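Checklist before submission:
- one chain only
- standard amino acids only
- sequence pasted in full

Submission:
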Amino acid sequence: MFTIDEIRAMNQEQLHAALTTIQEEMRTATNLADYEPLVAEIETRINAQRQRESLMARVAAGIEGTNARAAAPAPAAEQRTYGIDSPEYRTAFYKVMTDQELTVEERAAYVATTGGASGEANLLPKTLLNMIWSLIDEQHSILGDITMYRTGTILEIATHQSIAQGDAATVNENAANTDEKNVFGKVSLSGKDFSKHVDISYAMAKMSIDAFEPFLAQEIASRLGAALAADVVAQIGTDHDAGNDVTSAATGEIAFKDIAAAFGKLKNANGQVVVYGTRSTIYNQLVGMVDTTKRPIFQLNAQNGMEGTLIGAPVKVEDSVADGVLLIGYPKDVVGNMVQDVMIESDKDIKKHVITYSGYARFECKLVAPKGFAKLTVKTA
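Returned file contents:
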């Protein structure tokens, strides 16, 4: 058995060995009280040594041993999350597009958002994407009015062609209605490619982001929007029921009865009827229309992107409609599928010293109710 003085002279390693020896002896000893003071002394000295080692570590780290109170630990760094709506990704996007160096934060945002793959500038910053679509909707009202899906994949939709039997009808008391038989079609909207590019010089690419962003948005939106709107108008022309075509009775002039006839062709009401035409057609044919008492039929109203109202329907400028033609109908009956939202890629021409910015989208639409639109054409001869 050890003595108290022997224990006090031991180092840390000897103390652990002595504790192990004493614990072994205590398993067979009859008088455990003789060992208890020794165990207590060993544990006290081991704990004291641990405290000294901890203090020395804190002094070495500079958080102990000064006259001032130890500084509070620094708060944990804020965990940033990045995406297309973060300001760091916005600046990183434009710097990548113009081949400029990124800051640490911009690179982190770019890698987190795109995975760091080269050429992933198709992931537009939210500010640019919103700016492009805002410009497109302003310039081509029909695109903002149709039912638009941004699925990113092929979309299948059902079209209601007709009711072969069993439509709503008057029946005798206690008599059943005829079983309904509907004729449906199925359309797959897999998309068509739309593209627009613009070339700018190396020097022009050095303009500030606040100047470059609206320039790029305007260049891409103006032409992509025109192509998308033209496709919607053409699809309406293809899909609408030919029986809904109306030609003005008078040559070179639309009369109120022509408009009423076109409105009367519409079926399958879905939302608000809208009248679309070019500015030339609207102001040459509609604005001056009056009834038999010389009161204006067309009511001017510059709110909500429309020129006015006609029989309660908003009249909107749409340059994709041909001059001398009015499209009248329910735009919500047109279903559009944006398979690939607007993206922008860039490439350099080192011979011409220009950077090409190419805007691209994949889109397709369908008029799901053929009688949901009518076409009124001004008679030319």
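Reviewer check: The chain has a mean pLDDT of 83.
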